[in-house]
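tokens incoming
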């Protein structure tokens, strides 16, 4: 019972016993590699670790008792070392397994499809119309959107005081230039460029100072088609338009020609399609008429031919200007023209 008299010795053996039981509790709570590292540092750290500190204290224990204290300390160190090692290995293996499980790729999951772009309904119609005319060997030739008064009005036989020239209808860029109000400028440009016989289809944007309504918008799209050759008469015009309408809307679709007026055609007509929304009975979209106007047309006025140096005694032609937005509305059941210009993806993705 020599220990009783050795204060340092008792104290040290007690401290070793306490360190031993503290370790058991701490080890039970250390469940990941960080906690285990902390524990290792707490017991074995070179600076301030409990085990090295015990070994330093051993110097102060009286010689004859050193063995007992040293044995206890060695036992503690060996046990702690092996238990730390054993648990660290177990935890590391578990952590590696969990990490791998997280990185596994399930190749059987259905893939998320990449989002594809969609053609705008007006683009679909424009391309379709261009294709129909390409098949009839028309030249596809878009004209400029910014135009002079000559090409948009004067050469097309608009008198200087014609109401369409009014600032109420036309957007002017400056005194000499304006945004074309129709694609008919393409007729003049093409007839200046190519000698007859000539067949051209020209589609693009046009601009008018119109209020926005169900059917009208300040910017819309037209496709202008015209032909100049020998012996062209109104029967060619009618047959061509019927062909186009049947291609666009099916062979049983109905169209009608109404007499009308344009300064650059004589005679002139407008073509209506039976309204697809009400099937001809009358609705808000067709202003209760049962018909929707899709184009203006006529035989090219002799004065227009003369304006571009073509002899109207020798040559004749027809021309038409089709509203592509109207056609898109009819074809795709879109009752409001604004739907075409709002760029709502929920709408556009349907085409
Ligand atoms: N340019 C006319 C319009 O915008 C349509 C048209 C074109 C009429 C060609 C006759 C001939 O209303």
């Amino acid at each position: 019972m020599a220990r009783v008299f050795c204060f340092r010795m008792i104290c040290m053996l007690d401290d070793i016993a306490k360190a031993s039981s503290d370790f058991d509790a701490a080890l039970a709570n250390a469940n990941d590699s960080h906690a285990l590292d902390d524990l290792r540092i707490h017991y074995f750290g070179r600076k301030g670790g409990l085990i090295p500190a015990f070994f330093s204290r051993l110097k102060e224990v009286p010689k004859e008792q050193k063995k007992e204290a040293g044995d206890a300390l060695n036992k503690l160190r060996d046990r702690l070392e092996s238990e730390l090692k054993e648990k660290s290995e177990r935890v590391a293996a578990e952590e590696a397994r969990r990490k791998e499980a997280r990185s596994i790729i399930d190749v059987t999951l259905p893939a998320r499809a990449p989002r594809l772009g969609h053609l705008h309904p007006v683009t679909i119609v424009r391309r379709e119309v261009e294709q129909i005319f390409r098949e009839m060997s028309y030249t596809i030739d878009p004209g400029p959107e910014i135009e002079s008064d000559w090409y948009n009005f004067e050469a097309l036989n608009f008198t200087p005081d014609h109401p369409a020239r009014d600032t109420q209808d036309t957007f002017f860029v400056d005194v000499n230039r304006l945004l074309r109000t129709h694609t008919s400028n393409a007729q003049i440009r093409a007839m200046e460029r190519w000698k007859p016989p000539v067949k051209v289809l020209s589609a693009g944007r046009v601009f008018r100072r119109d209020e926005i309504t169900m059917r009208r918008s300040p910017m819309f799209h037209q496709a202008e088609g015209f032909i100049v050759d020998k012996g062209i008469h109104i029967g060619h015009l009618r047959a061509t338009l019927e062909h186009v309408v049947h291609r666009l809307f099916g062979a049983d679709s109905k169209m009608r020609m109404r007499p009308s007026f344009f300064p650059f055609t004589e005679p002139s007509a407008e073509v209506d399609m039976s309204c697809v929304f009400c099937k001809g009975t009358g609705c808000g979209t067709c202003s209760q008429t049962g018909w929707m106007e899709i184009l203006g047309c006529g035989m090219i006025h002799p004065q227009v031919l003369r304006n571009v140096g073509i002899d109207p005694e020798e040559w004749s032609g027809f021309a038409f200007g089709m509203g592509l937005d109207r056609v898109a509305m009819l074809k795709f059941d879109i009752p409001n023209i604004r739907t075409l210009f709002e760029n709502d993806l929920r709408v556009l993705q349907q085409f």
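note: Residues 2-104 form one domain.
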